[in-house]
Fold:
Amino acid sequence: MKKTIDEYMKKPYKMEIVKDTDEGGFVISFPELPGCLTVGGTVEEAIKNAEDAKKTWFEAALEEGIAINEPEINEKYSGQFKLRIPKSLHRSLAESAKREGISMNQYCVYLLSMLNNMHTPSIYK
Structure:
């Protein structure tokens, strides 16, 4: 039975956020959905655009009969972890997130994604 776009949209596809140092703003891609990417001037805008891009990608794939990969699910990672940080760092992160107009959680995900991409050898990307 064919899945609907809404069913695919609810699946946990991996989203990668990269700062565009050439053009400015941010680029978001979904590695499990080849060619599905978008941009935004801020992280928040890029994330909003990413949902639209993903939906459009699913619509086109279903229309063209292109196979849609299932997201890689690794049960041993919940997507959450606790982290104790100095109060001064907490304040700095909160203020930076506020300036960007996003939640501190989104801001930290962006920072961690950036650092992870910088330190991940290209053979693993």
About this structure: The CA atoms of residues 32 and 115 lie 21 Å apart. The helical segments are 5-9, 43-64, 87-100, 104-119. The chain is about 45% helix and 10% strand.
